[in-house]
C-alpha cells in the first residue's frame, strides 16, 4: 500500500466489490432536480447494474433522462472503500427482462416492482481510504 491515505482500486477490484454487494445509491435526474435513492441491485452477465422498480418518480426520471450515477461503499475500522459508476439506464422488457429472473436481486421491501432497469456502465472508479479515525483512541478506558 502507498503512503497516501487514498488509493485507486483497480477495475477488477471495483467490479469484485460491485458483485459482492447488493445495496447502493442511485442518482438520477427528474425534471430540473437531481435525486438520490437507496436501491437493491445485481450485476448481470453483460456487466450491467440491474434494478427492479415500481411505477413512480424513479422510473419517470430514468425514462426522461437516462444519465445516472450509482455508488456503493463499505468500511471497517481500518479503511473505507467506494465505487462510483456513471452510466445510462434503460428499461428492459420481454426476453431481456425475463433473463434477469435468475439474478440474485432481492428487494428489501415487500412491494411489487415489475419494471426492470439495466444501467450500462460508461465509467467506473473505485477508491480505498485509509482511516486514521483518531476518535477511536479517545474512548474512555474501562477500569
Automatic annotation (TrEMBL):
InterPro entries: Pyridox_Oxase-rel, Split_barrel_FMN-bd. Pfam families: Pyridox_ox_2. It comes from the Bacteria. This is Pyridoxamine 5'-phosphate oxidase family protein.
